[in-house]
From TrEMBL:
Protein name: Dihydrolipoyl dehydrogenase
Entry keyword Oxidoreductase: yes
The organism's place on the tree of life at top rank: Bacteria
Miscellaneous comment in the UniProt entry for this protein: The active site is a redox-active disulfide bond.
Classification via InterPro entries: Class-I_Pyr_Nuc-Dis_Oxidored, FAD/NAD-bd_sf, FAD/NAD-binding_dom, FAD/NAD-linked_Rdtase_dimer_sf, Lipoamide_DH, Pyr_nuc-diS_OxRdtase, Pyr_nucl-diS_OxRdtase_dimer
Length: 475
């Protein structure tokens, strides 16, 4: 007889494993199905984020940032290094260890919270009075039944039409994270988060990196002032960023990849690379679910259609994360996973899309929450802005990293914070205060009057809040 559960979660990425754990915490019998495999064929829960996304990319970013500091920054501190070299095999081995530790951590959390884990590919079979029958195609084929189903199958990289990923010359994020030798010439299509982060990794390691972007503006979703500062700094780091590019033919040969394109002025160009990373977005991963067979509705873009509470058209079937509308961010998926588990348990789950932070883990880091200045202008919102540079911050000077700024945007009448934008050291950590402030609908004056430790990078946040009323104290 098939095992029965109150909740069956399909996918153990950030949305799925968190949904399963929260459901189990709420007293619901819970199963989670996931088919990611490690190199030995064993389970590797954590989805794209843990296996070929957020976690391994941050490991490589940290390794190469250390390498760059050792080669270019340590001398200022009186630290002299001779014979510096980069062992790519060791760097990749460390990355794999970090990934494995996260995989094992999730399996431990399942055991701790009494979540039944099934390793294999899941698909809808049918519905009955008992619930939905889900097949698990793993080491052994079996079927389990869930009263509620949460689909959290994530996303897959989008390829260029007619140009498939071979993960040797034409790389998705998977191949980009597994390069075993520094390419002399690395091409990247797409100047988004993945493109910039991978470009930073391999540029620091010694590659000549060219980034080709179809849009005429750099980081169009970022506050314009922050984006201009980022573009200036990245170009100074020798990232060759080419905007307004129209791609032509892409061919591979024994020497690498040949790419024909038209530049922003309409001039035909040819570029040759040892490897080419394609980072032009991601697509919802719904293949193999038997969505059509069960009547699970997809929207015109291929995402699972859900309402504001992540309910699908099928009773007791939910979907979260990259497979539904909204930003493809791990922490957005986690929040939806928690909210859905709580709704299943009869509680009132909550996700505020207006306070979801965004981060680009380049150097300098870029992080923001809320509205950009250009959005406020388009919407006709009257606002005040305050900016404070890291160059005027004592802790940043001591760190030796004074690039960037913190920017506040507040309602001109009520002073409620509408957006906070940061480019600079540890922006990914500093943005947390901004999210808390906006979630509690704080004013810039609230932050300006809160005592911040000295010396700290967080003082830039306080000073930017003071700058809204043009009364910053250190600039």
């Amino acid at each position: 007889m098939a095992k029965q559960f109150d909740v069956v979660v399909i996918g153990a990425g950030p949305g799925g494993y968190i949904a399963a754990i929260r459901a189990a915490q709420l007293g619901l019998s819970t199963a989670c199905i996931d088919d990611w495999k490690n190199k030995k064929g064993g389970p590797a829960p954590g989805g794209t984020c843990t296996n070929v996304g957020c976690i391994p990319s941050k490991a490589l970013l940290q390794s190469t940032e250390n390498f760059e500091h050792a080669g270019h920054g340590f001398a200022d501190h009186g630290i002299e290094i001779q014979g510096l070299s980069l062992n790519i095999a060791q760097m990749q081995a460390r990355k794999e260890k970090v990934v494995s530790q996260n995989n094992e951590g999730i399996l431990y959390l399942f055991k701790k919270n009494k979540v039944s884990f099934f390793h294999g590919a899941a698909a809808f079979v049918k519905s009955s009075e008992d619930g939905y029958h889900i097949s698990v195609n793993g080491d052994k084929a079996e079927t389990i039944i869930g009263k509620h189903i949460v689909v959290a199958t994530g996303s897959v990289p989008r390829n260029l039409p007619g140009v498939e990923f071979d993960e040797k010359l034409i790389l998705s994020n998977t191949g980009a994270l597994a390069i075993d030798a520094v390419p002399k010439r690395l091409g990247i299509i797409g100047a988004g988060v993945i493109g910039l982060e991978m470009g930073s990794v391999w540029r620091r390691a010694g590659a000549n990196v060219t980034i080709l972007e179809a849009l005429p503006t750099f980081l169009g979703a970022v506050d314009e002032q922050i984006a201009k500062e980022a573009e200036k700094l990245f170009r100074k780091q020798s990232l060759d960023i080419r905007l307004g590019v129209k791609l032509g033919t892409i061919t591979t040969n024994k020497n690498g990849v040949k790419l024909e394109y038209t530049d922003s002025e309409g001039k035909a160009e040819v570029a040759e690379f040892d490897k080419l990373i394609v980072s032009i977005g991601r697509l919802p991963n719904t293949s193999g679910l038997n969505a059509d067979g069960i009547g699970l509705q997809l929207d015109e873009r291929g995402f699972i259609a859900v309402d504001g509470d992540c309910r699908t058209k099928l009773p007791n079937v939910w979907a979260v994360g990259d497979v539904v509308r909204g930003p493809m961010l791990a922490h957005k998926a986690e929040e939806e996973g928690v909210a859905v588990a709580e709704r299943i348990a009869g509680q009132h789950g909550h996700v505020n899309f207006n306070t979801i932070p965004w981060v680009i883990y380049t150097s300098p880091e870029i992080a923001w929450v809320g509205k950009t200045e250009q959005e406020l202008k388009r919407e006709g919102v009257q606002y005040k802005a305050g900016v404070f540079p890291f160059a005027a911050n004592g802790r940043a000077r001591a760190l030796g990293d004074t690039t960037g700024m913190v920017k506040f945007l507040a309602d001109a009448k009520t002073d409620e914070i509408l957006g906070i934008h940061i480019i600079g050291p540890l922006a990914s950590e500093l943005i947390a205060e901004a999210v808390v402030a906006m979630e509690f609908r704080a004013s810039s004056e609230d932050i300006a009057r809160i005592c911040h430790a000295h010396p700290s990078l967080a003082e830039t946040t306080k000073e930017a809040a003071l700058a809204v009323e043009k009364r910053s104290l250190n600039y």
